[in-house]
């Protein structure tokens, strides 16, 4: 069986033009390869500017690689139409709040991907959107809200809802947890775990949080200055990190040990 | 404890299409001089609104009532707008999550920093004042841990890393030596190492000059050890407040307990297991539950919970719950 995602020697250069001088090539990503199976979760970690977001954008098709190829179910992504790609890979951007349209209600924004990418009837669309709203911890009422009427954490949830409304095979998220409320973050993590179990969705996410990475991921990719310096299973990287940076990034600070008598019921 | 900031039963009422709603519902907060107090609450719980009420950035349409809203010896609600601005401007400062909202993108850091220094504190003729301003600006940068002052002052805000930008916004905020600094989620979007730097800096500033800090965060894991006290707020209601250690080690309130178990800092939890969390969603303003607002999401809720519980005091800790997780004097 073909791999869900097979990344082969992709790299990314930006050409930096300085007036009329010949452009200078800046390397954002040195050639790197890795692969991911169905239902697996990959965490990408690294310092600011190390290329994490570049990888995320290349996989989501928001940007094109300078060289190399990404295969999705064995098919080269460069040969797909935008619509094909959109159905399979969805992205939640780092500044996703700004990507919400302030003029359009939450419900309509969530219907949009369904209108453009499916043949669903308006009724089915509406039903799907209600389902998704509930899944991300919002209420049916929120269908008629405009983004500015929501608190910041709720806006973030709309963005996540928009990413999963098409039930894609891969969801790519760039720091999408940072702004979430703890109770909603825990719900979203549970939701992602559920979606993976039910539908075999793969999840690729960029995160600083050692706790979340350790809890959710199957594989971890460590970036340093545009280079992939370590890639392996989560267990391997926790137990036998080869790089000091890996150790540092995966070290979680425990300021307070959670008391064991915690009794919260489901 | 003698409180430098004393808030009792503060309510803020907003008009919505379904009539007035209390966004802050009889909220209490006491802050001692030189103390770091962390206010923890999820989004929309009214944290920023509380900060605005303290600073006096108030929309005239909001209805604000309180049994007490005192800052030092000032009854803030009794002051007129002009008096209030003077007190706030002199004694208080605030920093935000996004420091770039604070910095002018068109102006170099040095110029903005020099401008933030209160003119009243400079003396002498024009030229001396100018030199004086420069030296003070440098000293401010030193205080927030920036050594290469000449380089930083020549930069524009977009040329700063997020950590550096936040340090500069802190430098500007403390330029007039405020007695109270409100830090509204100052590190939310930052990497852990930068976040740590900013927290250490704030803790140092508080210890060094007796500045009180009201730290605002959504996340219990962001509470720093230097924070002597914490308060948990949900939908505008105070859930639990007290010394950080006590509240964290043995919470009385179901909300504190839930926030603790959701924080993922428990190493014993197996990978990929579902996390314990509060079910449901934070209610919208239009649909605030009556009584204890945690009710619909609380695993312990019973009939009595449709009445808002009064604050119960157990030694240093205060909580608002009809069915606390344990009774005091269970000495263990
Ligand atoms: N100017 C306003 N007009 C109407 N409603 C407002 C206004 N400002 C805030 N609110 C509402 O008041 C409630 C509390 O808002 P506030 O900004 O204080 O929350 P917060 O705790 O700071 O949340 P966050 O963690 O998302 O910053 C929210 O439901 C919000 O939608
Ligand atoms: S008062 Fe009732 S609903 Fe509120 S926290 Fe306590 S048990 Fe839960
Ligand atoms: Mg806020």
Secondary-structure blueprint:
The complex is a heterodimer of chains A (266) and B (332).
Chain A: E1 5-18, E2 21-36, E3 41-46, H1 52-60, E4 67-72, E5 75-76, H2 82-88, E6 89-92, H3 106-117, H4 122-135, H5 152-164, E7 170-174, H6 182-199, E8 202-206, H7 210-216, E9 219-224, E10 227-233, H8 234-239, H9 244-250
Parallel strand pairs in A: 3-8, 3-9, 6-7, 7-8
Antiparallel strand pairs in A: 1-2, 1-4, 4-5, 9-10
Chain B: E1 3-16, E2 19-32, E3 36-41, H1 47-55, E4 63-65, E5 68-71, E6 74-75, H2 81-91, E7 92-95, H3 109-116, H4 126-143, H5 149-153, H6 162-173, E8 180-184, H7 192-209, E9 212-217, E10 229-234, E11 237-243, H8 244-249, H9 254-262, E12 312-314, E13 317-319
Parallel strand pairs in B: 3-9, 3-10, 7-8, 8-9
Antiparallel strand pairs in B: 1-2, 1-4, 1-5, 5-6, 10-11, 11-13, 12-13
The complex binds adenosine-5'-triphosphate, iron/sulfur cluster and magnesium ion.
Adenosine-5'-triphosphate sits between chains B (14, 23, 41, 43-49, 59, 218, 285) and A (151-153).
Protein name (chain B): Peptide ABC transporter ATP-binding protein
Main location (chain B): membrane
Subcellular location (chain B): Cell inner membrane
